[in-house]
Structure formats: C-alpha cells, structure tokens
C-alpha cells in the first residue's frame, strides 16, 4: 500500500512540477552581469508538451510585480494561464530598459537588454520546452519601446509583438527587419507621456525630454512597409462601454508577407494605460483606462493567431 502511495506522489510531481501555477524568481548571467526574471507556469503545465511563451516587459521605474498587478490588474496572468502559456517577466536593470533612447536613459548603456532577452528565449526553449515557433513579446511604456526594438532586432526568434503606450524612437526607425513579423500597437490619443502624434516625450509634463518618437501611424507604417502588407486596411470602430470615456478605432492589415498581420488599436481619449487594466495613477497624471477591451485577451488571441 505504501509503495502505491509513493508511486502516486511521483506521478503527481512529474505531471505537475513544483513551479506550476506559481511565480518563481530566477537569475542568469549576461555579459558577466546577473539578470533576473520571474516565471509563471500555467496550472496545466506538462513538461512533455511544448508550450507557447509570452515575455512581458514592465514600464520604466516599475517592476514585474507592479506591472502584473497594478498595471494589467492580473489580466495577462489570467489569460496566459487560460491558454496554457508560459509567462516570463524579465526585470530591467535599475527598473529600466535600453529601448533605443539611450541618451535619454543615462546609465542603461552598460546593459545589453537585447542579448538578455535573446538568451532568455534560448533558455526557455531548452529548459522549459517552449515551442520556438510560439515565442511572443509584449510590453508597456518603456517596456513597449523595448518590445518594438526586439521586434526588429530579434525577428528570427520572435513570432509576434504587441506594444502598448509606446511608439518607435527616431533612432530605431533606421533599422531594417530581417523578415516579416506580426505586430500590434495599442495607444491612447490622450496619453500625456507618449504623444500619440509623435514628438517630444516628457514625463508628467516635466521639462526634461525623454526622447523624440514617431507617431503611432508612422510606427505602424514601418511594419506595414517592411512586411509588404496589402492595402487598403480593414477598418472598424467600437464603443461597447458608454461610461469609460473612450472608443476604439481599429486598423488591420491582414494580408502581409509571411502570413503576418499588422494592427493599430487607436484608443480615443485613452491615456498611458493598459486597456482593461487598473487606473494605477490618477487620471490627471496618466489619463483614462479604457474598458472597451481587455488588452491581455486581445494580445493573447493575436499571438495565438500569429505563430510562425
């Protein structure tokens, strides 16, 4: 009887690893510098089956926990779990990412964040049985800028990217995609930090520049051009929630080279926020959170529809 009980316990531990369903902080060395990341495996994780991966990048001055709880309101965690996807939250050094605006983020030049994410992807494929054809990246604000950079510089390793409250920096625009990649941009027109129509970024209306950025339309056009998308785009609007002060204008390019897609979600009157997430700071500082859509569900659906 005891032997049967032991065998039963072993079966449980094999089928449901200790890290399944929990957050685990881990470290790797990149250029002799310790880099940290947090894993969140789905409750139904099976070590013998390949699993999709979402790499989620926090905003500047934030960290994985604030991003997961205060920004997304745990919606990304829930959607990843519901769809049996591994979620990894890398941690930026000094709570920031080298997203291509280096001169505006002093001290970050030392850290090779592109290499960090590249090696993290390799590790996840090797150690966690991640499907190399289902590696996805998302991020907001500084993390969204970094996601755009990764979409260009790690195209070979990433299937699709969704960037929120971020646009392409002037420096990044001169880089060329090695191959087409599916890309979605979700931005608010009343974002007080990242100007929807491009220009100078300023944090909470402070005088110091955080760098110049292209407009949301110019950012999308970069991917439309490099993905050789067929025109015209499919356009639609949405106003399901009459009380959240926002509406959506959706522009979709569904016929792009390599079966990729490019989508712009324009959140009219939306702020520097994660749609469907939390109002993590007062409206006067960051603008309104849109309740028109659950951005986490939207991006997960986009990812799963755009594997390699």
Describe this structure in words.
The protein has 308 residues and is an alpha/beta fold. The protein has a single domain, classed as Rossmann fold, CATH 3.40.50.1820. Helix content is 27%, strand content 27%. The protein is built from eight helices and twelve strands. It has helices spanning 2-15, 64-71, 75-82, 113-127, 142-153, 216-226, 283-286, 295-304, and strands spanning 23-30, 33-40, 51-57, 86-90, 130-140, 160-164, 182-188, 199-202, 209-213, 234-238, 247-256, 260-268. The strands form two sheets. The chain has a ten-stranded mixed sheet with strand order 1-2-4-3-5-6-7-12-11-10, with helices on both faces. A two-stranded antiparallel ribbon has the order 8-9. α3 (75-82) packs parallel to α8 (295-304). The longest helix has 15 residues, at 113-127. It is globular, with a radius of gyration of 19 Å. The termini are far apart. Residues 1-19 have low confidence and may be disordered.
Helix and strand run: HEEEHHEHEHEEEEHEEEHH
Percent helix:
25-40%
SS-based class: alpha/beta
Global mean pLDDT: 90
Largest sheet: 10 strands, mixed
Shape: globular
Strand content bin: 25-35%
Tally of helical segments: 8
- Indicate the CATH topology: Rossmann fold
Quick take:
This protein is about 25% helix and about 25% strand. Strands 1-2-4-3-5-6-7-12-11-10 form a ten-stranded mixed beta sheet, sandwiched between helices. The protein has eight helices and twelve strands.
